[in-house]
Amino acid sequence: MSDAAPSGPLSGLRILELGHFVAAPFCTRLLADLGADVIKIEPPGGDPVRQWGRQVEGAGAPWWSMHARNKRCITVDLKRERAVGLVLDLVRTCDAVVENFRPGQLARMGLSRAALEAARPGIVVAHISGYGQDGAYRDRAAFGVIGEAIGGLRHLTNHPPGETDLPPVRVGVSIGDSIAGLYAAFGVVAALLARDRPGGDGRGRTLDVALSESVLSMMEGMLPEYGVFGTVRQPTGSRIATAAPSSAYPTRDGGWILIGGNSDPIFERLTSLMGRPDLFADPRFTGNANRVRNVEALDGEIGDWTRRHDARDLDRMLAAADVPATVTYTAAEIAADPQFRARGMVREVEDPAFGRVLQAGIVPHVPDDPGTVRWPGPRLGQHTDAILRDDLGLDEAAIRSLRDEGVVG
Fold it and tell me: CATH code at 280?
């Protein structure tokens, strides 16, 4: 990989990231994958994600290779007196700023909306925070897991009531942060479209994205159902509360097979494959509503059948019968999957720090103007001198002065 010119539908846009951890960096990675030129400002110690997860001695965490790919990284100590002026100089070259400090912290640093607008009229600024830039919880600390809990997701990611005394299960990834980052990326593109399209108003906009609200917006009918019926949706474990059969079923070799047979034609094909056409004719299972009401009995019948077969055999049989199904993939199955490989969703990236790294591909696919992995997550301060020299026009003496004062690293 080399520092190649951006390609993709967002080529020509420049984004300044004042982010750390997951939400803001995830937002800017999405934009960078589609061609935007992202300049990431890091503190002298680097983004904490450089050290998250299993690490390679001297190189850090492999997640960084994907999390910060396609970005140019400059190390700036924002606590230094000259740092704010340096950031504003960068803002003058940018279309948008994405940040996820506590509400108000950017302004306290001297980077208020007014200051950013003065530096770059029409700048788009995306704020990502736990609860938003105003409201009663504005100043409360929050990470993604907190947003997931208050947004209703953690309540639903559990087994049905009474089945276990263990705490509600986490999704397994920082989904609240990622959803907020996705909304922020969408908002940035929408704001830039409103500003720059023919007939656009030329105005900058401020985006206010809250982790808690991002999660809540994904909760489907949970809130409307409560408003209309007064019912509180409960966790359903592996099942879908409104459709059956749709669950994970045990296999002979100790695995699990996911089966979604929740329409009448699919259910008929499933029962035929099982050698149990009588189940399709059974009044208890006629129509989705009846199958949902009798899901315990239905899942028992399907589980008895799946236990007689290995997971991979079931996967092939169900695919041949045109029944939606899959084994539960781990990283190993994902890495070897021919569909992911064919579409570039599992790709091998050469990284000087880690060697060959498997990374997830770029979403969305834009076949006629694809983005690409131009380079993996940079080492700390890798692009500092180049950005100061090529983007801001500073000479070697000026760069040395900033470094001597500890402003850049």
Answer: 3.30.1540.10
